[in-house]
Automatic annotation (TrEMBL):
Pfam family, one: YkuD
Signal peptide positions on this chain: none
GO annotation, biological process: cell wall organization; peptidoglycan-protein cross-linking; regulation of cell shape
Class of the enzyme per the UniProt entry, highest EC level: hydrolase
One MF term in the entry's GO annotations: transferase activity
Organism encoding this protein: Ligilactobacillus acidipiscis
Protein name stated in the entry: D-alanyl-D-alanine carboxypeptidase
Enzyme Commission number(s) of this protein: 3.4.16.4
């Protein structure tokens, strides 16, 4: 009988200990989750403030010629460190390339972190020569990149090129430079211009041109395998299913 009482007391003590441990564990988990949520809220607030500032900045500069030697926007480039741990495809950092708007958007999910002025050759079916075509579709940033190049057959080169298709065939790169290392201003002046026509297409052999600082930052901060979506007017939503 005494043994049974001792056993009952032991079971009771174990149950109390387990309940106490469970309460402590739940409390710690709630505290950790609260800290995590507060940290994420702080990150989101800073991001939203920066996005609002960038929109205001872009409106003010919309009518001015783009300076190819400077970043597209004033202020600092976005810090992508807080977003590197994200695993959900719809919330990751990716590049949205709008042929219609002649822009490259650095995205985090549906949020625009930064806007870059670009020169992108449009795809005019039956009217566009191969060297003018910028491929439309869903790509991944590739490992191939370089500080600069010059192609004598095309009579121009560029700085800070980063491949997004064809392992060096189609690239993000700076505005074009001649064999003497001087920028070709007539073409550089078309950055961000939406007046691209069949007759006056951008002859960039399918690559996407950016300002020199933008091309450099992209190469140094956007990692290989990052999603790159290139779309035109008729396909604005076609390649964006991953966001839903």
């Amino acid at each position: 009988m005494k043994n049974k009482k001792w056993l009952y007391w032991l079971v009771a003590l174990l149950l109390v200990a387990a309940a106490g441990y469970s309460v402590i564990h739940v409390h710690k988990a709630e505290q950790a989750n609260s800290v995590k949520m507060a940290k994420q809220a702080s990150i989101d607030k800073k991001r939203d403030q920066k996005i609002a500032k960038q929109k205001k900045d872009q409106k003010q500069r919309a009518r001015k010629l783009v300076d190819w030697s400077k970043p597209s926007l004033t202020g600092e480039y976005p810090d992508l460190t807080p977003y590197r741990h994200i695993k959900k495809k719809k919330d990751k950092v990716w590049l949205d390339v709008s042929v219609r708007k002649q822009r490259v958007y650095v995205m985090q999910g549906r949020y625009i972190l930064y806007t870059m002025y670009a020169s992108i050759g449009k795809n005019y079916d039956g009217h566009t020569q191969d060297y003018q075509r910028t491929p439309v579709g869903d790509f991944r940033l590739q490992k191939e990149h370089g500080p600069e190049y010059y192609d004598a057959t095309k009579k121009y080169g560029a700085k800070y090129w980063t491949s997004f298709s064809g392992h060096g065939v189609y690239r993000f790169e700076s505005v074009p430079f001649d064999k003497n290392g001087k920028v070709i201003e007539k073409q550089a002046g078309r950055l961000g211009s939406q007046k691209v026509t069949k007759k006056h297409n951008i002859k960039n052999y399918g690559s996407i041109r950016l300002t020199v600082p933008d091309a450099k930052w992209l190469q140094e901060n956007i990692k290989p395998h990052t999603r790159v979506v290139v779309h035109g007017k008729k396909s604005d939503k076609e390649f964006l299913d991953f966001l839903y």
